[in-house]
Amino acid sequence: MRLSILDQSPISSNQTAHEALNESMKLAQMGENLGYTRYWIAEHHDLPGLACPAPEVMLSYIGAHTSTIRIGSGAVLLPHYKPYKVAEVYNMLATLFPGRIDIGIGRAPGGSAEASNALSDNFLQQVWNMPKSVTELLHFLENDFTSEHEYKNLRASPVPPVPPAPWLLGTSKKSALLAAEKGMSYAFGQFMSENNGPEIIQKYLDTFQPRTHWQKPEVILTVNVICAEKDEEAEEIALSSIIWSLQKSKGEGNGVPSIAQAKQYPLDDKDLQTIEKMKQNMIIGNPKKVIKKLNELVSLFHADEIMLVTITHSPEDRVKSYQLIAEEAFHI
């Protein structure tokens, strides 16, 4: 089973953004040392408790502090940007770090409507234009000068020896069909979806149209996981992430609370129901329990790879979670 890391670069209640971003770099180094396949970092805009609005900046920093692990965006929020500029940036990264760069593409705003308006004009129109933007981006990444594309003679320089590997990220049938139509690898965000994931991924596999004769469909399943040596410890650590999600939904909180702070947070009956629903979409437990569940998901979703999202208050707890999972999965 291939395992990877999705990092949202969370800021804990006792951290600065600088400290959170430095922990992200350390997490990528840890992932490389433990045998994780890839490390992706997410893009968010003016969301309290999340430190990374510019994955491309962090990837240059992380690439310089690692040597083998694949690194990429999870995701570039394409409606905010021109495809040509995105291709230039990721070609630059692929030139600096040959054979290691992924470019995950998403259509979400990544922040408030106000942030979207500040970032780009006509965001909703650009979401509607997403298929055209994806086609344009692939053209620039692949330097396809045989097509009759509008920009057929324009290069996104520098042109790397190995182009960035494009992935489409999503949580719906619409994203799965677009990935299949464009012949792209697909990452399904199970950790943030209430849709029928197995059905969506099967639709992707059934309708995949390769851009070249050697291409095959490829699926990453992204799940929310907290692992500790004992189930009880994992449940306690997970409480910080759960209460933080609850706070965000209410417009409260400035970072991931400590376990003590999470325990003191007042909860009503509606909150308790929400928490139970959240936990149903998480994997929480000891290493053997977590790996058993991940293997079940691989079979159920026909996934080639599992990408883990782990948010804890303590950086040490986060590293330990990834470490315990790797040791159980890779027999370290």
Structure description:
- The protein has 332 residues and is an alpha/beta fold.
- It has a single domain, classed as TIM Barrel (Alpha-Beta Barrel).
- It contains 13 helices and nine strands.
- An eight-stranded parallel β-barrel has the order 1-2-3-4-5-6-7-9, surrounded by nine helices.
- Helix 7 runs parallel beside helix 8 and helix 12 crosses helix 13.
- The longest helix has 19 residues.
- The chain is globular and about 60 Å long.
- The two termini are 14 Å apart.
- The mean pLDDT is 95.
- To bacterial alkanal monooxygenase alpha and beta chains.
Largest sheet: 8 strands, parallel, barrel
CATH superfamily: Luciferase-like domain
Q: What fraction strand? A: 15-25%
Low-confidence stretches: none
Mass-distribution shape: globular
Number of helices: 13
Question: H/E order of the elements?
Answer: EHEHEHEHHHEHEHEHHHEHEH
Domain module count? 1
Residues in helices, as a percent range: 40-55%
Radius of gyration: 20 Å
Give the rounded overall mean pLDDT: 95
Task: Briefly note the structural class of the backbone.
Answer: alpha/beta
Provide the CATH topology. Answer: TIM Barrel
- Compute the separation of the termini in Å: 14 Å
Number of strands: 9
If strands are numbered along the chain, what order do they take across the biggest sheet?
A: 1-2-3-4-5-6-7-9
What's the CATH C level? Alpha Beta
